[in-house]
């Protein structure tokens, strides 16, 4: 069955579901030609469900992820795939409980009506065992894949509890990028930001600038990440970085509070500050169109 194409009008209709503004990422006017095999498509970024968390910041902690799955399934045009940018589960010192949470998470997201699912770990999933349990359930923690003219690179900046990519992974990235033409359209997926957003709050990757330097020769690079539980946009040179909202609780704006504590649940506006992101890629332009979507409408 041929999948329907999402046109601009439909994408704007998606934005209207959550009242979120469409955000363009990329280089409008850039002369980058369409890559071979490039087609329009649409995918979804989900992040930071922290399955296993319980507490006042989200009285519906066990209900929010299923609601997000239902919201994605209710989109008027189904995404080609989803990416989940880490912290699938909430941390626990008990290895058996960690695996139980991952199994429950896997079962819930198996209800997503999408053709592909791509996962990467967050520090809650991986920092206590260097990603061992994550790999048992979801496979490698860094890898690549292609989709309709875009090349995706998944990086792991969480399995090392020191918040580093590490020399081995940077060497892998250097070698992989060396095989690609410089006009390749790149989308990089990470959990922590690759730049120093707020190192005091662990919102940085200690050797992230080395990865950014390796990516810099490519004209069209966009980074999507999670970790900070809020929408955020940043540029390092021509490289755009976009953080997604969380599916468990929002966190304060960077360094806006004495401590990095969850924002209180608002009973008058449940699920406020939570959500996921729709991303439209078009063959005719290097810009990606982003829109923020709610877990629950209304």
Question: What do you see in this structure?
Answer:
The model is unreliable at 1-6, 14-21 and 27-33 (pLDDT under 50). The longest helix is centred in the middle third of the chain and has 15 residues, at 95-109. Helix content is 23%, strand content 20%. With 298 residues, it is α/β, with parallel strands linked by helices.
How many DSSP-defined strands? 12
How many helices in DSSP terms? 7
Q: Report strand %.
A: 15-25%
Please estimate the helix content: 10-25%
Mean pLDDT, to the nearest integer, reads 90
Termini gap? 33 Å
> Would you identify the regions where 5 or more consecutive residues have pLDDT less than 50?
1-6, 14-21, 27-33
> What shape does the CA trace take?
globular
Topology pattern, helix = H, strand = E: HEEHEHEHHEEHEHEEEEE
Spatial arrangement of strands, main beta sheet:
1-12-11-2-3-4
Going by helix content, strand content and strand pairing, the class is alpha/beta
Radius of gyration, in Å, reads 18 Å
What's the main sheet like? Answer: 6 strands, mixed
Domain Calcineurin-like phosphoesterase: 43-230
InterPro entries: Calcineurin-like_PHP, Metallo-depent_PP-like, STPP_CPPED1, TAT_signal
Protein name: Metallophosphoesterase
Organism: Variovorax terrae
Task: Using brief descriptors, characterize the structure shown.
single chain; about 300 residues; alpha/beta; 6-stranded mixed beta sheet; 7 helices; 12 strands; globular; disordered N terminus
């Amino acid at each position: 069955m041929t999948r329907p194409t999402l046109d601009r009008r439909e994408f704007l209709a998606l934005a209207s579901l959550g009242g979120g503004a469409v955000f363009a990422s990329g280089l409008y006017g850039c002369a980058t030609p369409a890559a071979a095999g490039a087609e329009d498509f649409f995918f979804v970024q989900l992040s930071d469900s922290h399955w296993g968390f319980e507490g006042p910041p989200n009285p519906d902690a066990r209900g929010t992820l299923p609601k997000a799955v239902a919201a994605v399934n209710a989109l008027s045009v189904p995404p080609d795939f989803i990416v989940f940018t880490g912290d699938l589960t909430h941390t626990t010192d008990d290895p058996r409980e960690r695996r139980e949470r991952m199994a429950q998470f896997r079962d819930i997201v198996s209800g997503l009506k999408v053709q592909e699912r791509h996962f990467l770990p967050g520090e809650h999933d991986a920092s206590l065992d260097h990603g061992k349990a994550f790999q048992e359930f979801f496979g490698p923690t860094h890898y690549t894949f292609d989709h309709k003219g875009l090349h995706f690179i998944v990086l792991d900046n969480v399995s090392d509890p020191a918040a580093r990519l590490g020399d081995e992974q940077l060497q892998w990235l250097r070698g992989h990028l060396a095989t690609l033409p410089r006009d390749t359209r790149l989308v990089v997926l990470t959990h922590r930001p690759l730049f120093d957003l707020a190192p005091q709050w662990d919102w940085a990757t200690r050797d992230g600038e080395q990865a950014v330097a390796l990516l810099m020769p490519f004209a069209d690079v966009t980074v999507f990440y999670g970790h900070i539980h809020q929408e955020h946009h940043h540029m390092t040179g021509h490289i755009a970085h976009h953080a997604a909202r969380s599916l468990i609780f929002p966190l304060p704006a960077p360094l806006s509070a004495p401590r990095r504590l969850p924002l209180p649940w608002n009973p008058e506006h449940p699920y406020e500050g939570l959500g996921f992101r729709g991303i439209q890629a078009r063959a005719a332009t290097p810009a990606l169109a982003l829109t923020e979507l709610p877990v629950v409408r209304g």
